[in-house]
Amino acid sequence: MTPHVHGQITYDIPDREIMSSGHLACPGCGASLAMRLALKELGPRTVLCIPACCWAVIDGPFPYSAAGVPVVHCAFETAAITATGVRHGLDVRGLDDVNVVAWAGDGGTFDIGFGALSAAAERNENILYICYDNEAYMNTGIQRSSATPVGAWTTTTPTKTPKEEPKKNLVEILAAHRIPYTATATVAYPDDLTRKLRRAIGTKGFRLLHIFSPCPPGHKSLESDSIKISRLAVETKVFPLYEVEGGTKYTLSRQSQGIPVRDYIRLQGRFKHLTDADLDVMQTRVDREWDFLMKKITLFG
User: Fold this and answer.
1) Fewer Cβ within 10 Å of end Cβ, the chain: N or C?
2) Pick the CATH number of 30-300 from 1.10.3720.10, 3.40.30.10, 1.50.10.10, 3.40.50.970
3) Torsion of CA 238, 36, 182, 127, to 10 degrees
4) Cα distance between residue 233 and residue 227, in whole Å
């Protein structure tokens, strides 16, 4: 994808389109754009293993499919183990040039599918696991998951009793498994996402990409703000972009501009009940987590 207007940024993104139009995603869905960008790099020699999640619906009703590649629909908790089975089956047939991808939301990754995920990571299965993280169970009505950030409204954490627990740190948990490669990404930086996909595809063993994926209905945001929210998540240090190799080598992909967290929060109705004092606490927590990450990058870069 190379812009031809003088002065524009040139992105190293393949021009090919694997995913088709006519999918069933909501307007402004980060997950649909994440899939489109991912498939550009993954190519047609790809098998997707998708559990119960938004993308199980986005792909379309049988016999239709917007993905453009073979899709194995599997049970909520089985994305990692289904992909493992597909990988071994293809290897037995000598088809080692096919990318096998477990593609799941945060509910099927952080929560319900975590046991299978951890087991596949511990065995270092040769699969790519991609979690598109919209920070709640969006497909079933916006319920809290362990990826939901502290202070957020969901239907199970209403405004009078918002979520009190911090978001689970998926990348750090997977890094502790000492897998070959794990990284964060967002749709706001497609060149960064593409580079990390390329790196993951070229690495053997268990790899995981954690993609922040705005959800306008669940985040109570404007459809037109999804890219802006993704960008602000990075620039406010809420969602740092970094990579971890072998569980021990840390690399920062993009330096944050240090924009106040409230600029990110104010675009999302799920946080509208928070007070100025709440936002100050959130800013302190985000700054502390960023400083901790910077120390790891300095020590283990």
Assistant:
1) C
2) 3.40.50.970
3) 150
4) 10
User: Which of helix, strand or coil describes residue 244?
Assistant: strand
| Widest distance between CA atoms in the chain | 60
The full set of domain ranges for the chain reads 30-300
Tokens of 92: 């037995």
Q: In which residue are the tokens 């799941």 written?
A: 104
- Distant-in-sequence contacts of 251-257, Cβ < 8 A, 24+ apart: 251/297, 251/301, 252/293, 252/294, 252/297, 252/301, 253/183, 253/184, 253/192, 253/196, 254/189, 254/192, 256/290
Token couple for 116? 């299978």
What pLDDT is recorded for position 3?
Answer: 46
Q: What is the crossing angle of helices 30-42 and 226-235, to 10°?
A: 80
pLDDT attached to residue 6: 54
Q: Tell me: cis bond preceding 63? Omega within 30 of 0 counts.
A: yes
282-301 pLDDT per residue, tens: 999 999 999 999 999 999 98
In whole angstroms, what is the distance from residue 92 CA to residue 9 CA? 43
Residue 220 clears pLDDT 70, i.e. is over it: yes
Mean pLDDT over all residues of the chain? 95
